[in-house]
Design a protein that fits this description.
Layout: H1 2-34, H2 41-48, H3 52-58, H4 62-66, H5 70-82, H6 90-101, H7 107-117, H8 120-145, H9 152-176, H10 182-204
């Protein structure tokens, strides 16, 4: 009886995942064709062959559809930084995480980037997510340095991390091309994180500015 219940739960979960993926796929297609602001939730629901209520049950807003693929990734990074082992530094976590997720951007990711670049509302949402990640990195680096999260050193280091990762990503695309392999992308990101580790090592033995 228990195995049957588990099977039913599994089927239900797979159906939910298919519905969710369908909504995201058709929404992105409509955004690309008609524009983000010009596409309504009703049109997304019709194309996905579900009700508006179903769309809102999965995604409280259109913004959430655009960020559907990135939100779980961000949550995973936040969790790894928060729950890391005592002997794992913030750069260790970032190196491992970026290695797992480093890849050439596919068509869906490139479309998402174009949508964000072209819409102020989406850019605001994106900046909010980046700020949340930067806060988590700040807290992790502060723990590594023995500083308070609002001290100067961890805040400067976290800002440098965010800028460095952005520069590294653009460098990988520009120099290696959009078909860069995972190994090539990891090499570029590793340079940025090695730079960060060197900077943290240099200040670790000095009294921090409060």
């Amino acid at each position: 009886m228990l195995s049957f219940a588990l099977m039913v739960d599994g089927l239900r979960e797979r159906k939910k995942q298919r519905t969710r993926e369908t909504i995201v796929t058709v929404a992105l297609e409509l955004f690309a064709e008609r524009g983000y602001q010009q596409t309504t939730v009703a049109e997304i629901a019709e194309a996905a062959e579900v009700s508006k209520g179903t769309v809102f049950a999965y995604f409280p807003s259109k913004e959430d559809i655009v960020f559907a693929d990135t939100a779980p990734v961000c949550e995973d990074l936040l969790r790894q930084l928060r729950d890391r082992e005592p002997d794992r530094s913030a750069p260790d976590v970032l190196r491992s995480f970026m290695g797992e997720h480093a890849s050439a951007p596919d068509a869906r990711r490139l479309l998402r980037e174009r949508l964000i670049a072209g819409d102020a509302q989406l850019r605001s949402h994106y900046r909010a997510r980046l700020a949340e990640i930067e806060d988590a990195i700040t807290a992790a680096i502060a723990e590594d340095l023995g500083d308070a999260p609002d001290a100067l050193r961890p805040r400067l280091a976290a800002s440098a991390v965010m800028a460095g990762l952005s520069v590294a990503k653009e460098h990988a695309r520009r120099v290696r091309g959009r078909s860069a392999s995972r190994e090539e992308a990891e090499a570029v990101l590793d340079e940025a994180l090695a730079f960060l580790e060197g900077g943290l090592a240099a200040v670790a033995g000095r009294p921090g500015a409060r």
